[in-house]
Amino acid sequence: MTTTADADVLPALRAKVRGTAHPGGAPCSHPDSVLAERADGVVVRHGDTVAKAHAPGTDPAHLTLRLTVAASHPDTLLAPLTPTPAALHERLVTFWPYGTPVDPDAPEAAPWEAAATLLARLHRQPPPVGLPPMRGPVKAARAVARLEAAAPHHPATPSVLRAWHSLPAWARDEAPMPGTTTVCHGDLHLGQLVRHPAGTGAWRLIDVDDLGVGVPGWDLARPAAWYACGLLRPEEWTRFLTAYQRADGPAVPAHGDPWAALDVPARALTVQTAALAIAKCTAAGRPLDDAQQSVVDACDRMSGIPPELDGPFPK
């Protein structure tokens, strides 16, 4: 269940995106479309223009640096329409061109190779001075905190928490990450890719909210976790991993077993996914579905196994 954003933000954002799309004030009868409406982000589209109101408390200097990275690497990241955020009802707003997202109803056409190649390209870029840490571990820690608050008595919660506490401190956002020189996306999944120009253009990464310096293996961790949990077919995982290696991505060795670099991030993303699934299902009063249960089961298996294994955590 999503949380409705501040009631004042959405209508103001609609006006803002229309003004940006039509700077001369020309009348337009085309409707707006709300692409996302959550407490941590409201996104509205008007024509080919998209406006995003970022989470309350977003650091303007950090967001500006993240926009700078996107603008500096338009072959990798979707470039913003403006270089700095605007202010709107105590929220920061950024403006973007519209791109066509991945079709969720056509999993056979998922752009795994493109995602991997874009990540490798991003990971090879020098970070600008002052770019903050990528926020992957922060989001994982918030998911676990949400689990503890929403579902402390759920029967699966203890095993998820045991799996969480088996991770090193940096993966739990309790210590600095060991890598501080690699630019990372921070929240890679297929929803973070669009074609630009819409429909016909090349794939680009979107959403810079979590972008920063850190451990590049985190960006490969969600597909790695899906593979280890049996949710991603081996051939799709191989396509993704091979494309990343061929593009000289630094997160894993060019040849040989990648799991020494991926095991901890993949475990962390598994815990994050399980924690959110339990919290959301508890709030909605419904049971876990099969995919969610498989991630929870993986946490149960992980909870008694040290994170320094050479291969994917046991299935």
Structurally, the number of domains stands at 2
CATH topology of the largest domain: Aminoglycoside 3'-phosphotransferase, Chain: A, domain 2
Helical run tally: 9
Helix content: 25-40%
- The CATH architecture of the largest domain comes to Alpha-Beta Complex
**Tell me, what's the shape?**
globular
Which SSEs are present, and which pair or pack?
Blueprint lengths: L8 H13 L11 E6 L2 E6 L2 E6 L5 H13 L13 E3 L2 E7 L2 E2 L10 H12 L12 H15 L6 H9 L16 E3 L8 E4 L5 E4 L6 E3 L6 H8 L5 H13 L12 H26 L5 H13 L13
Antiparallel strand pairs: 1-2, 2-3, 3-5, 4-5, 6-8, 7-10, 8-9
Helix pairs in contact: 3-7, 4-8, 5-8, 5-9, 6-8, 8-9
Describe the 3D structure:
This protein is 39% helix and 14% strand. It is of the alpha+beta class and 315 residues long. The protein folds into 2 domains: 9-98, 2-Layer Sandwich (Phosphorylase Kinase, domain 1), CATH 3.30.200.20; 107-302, Aminoglycoside 3'-phosphotransferase, Chain: A, domain 2 (Alpha-Beta Complex), CATH 3.90.1200. The strands form 3 sheets. It has a 5-stranded antiparallel β-sheet with strand order 1-2-3-5-4, with helices on one face. A hairpin with a 2-residue loop joins strand 4 (86-88) and strand 5 (91-97). Helix 3 runs parallel beside helix 7 (234-246), helix 4 packs parallel to helix 8 and helix 6 crosses helix 8.
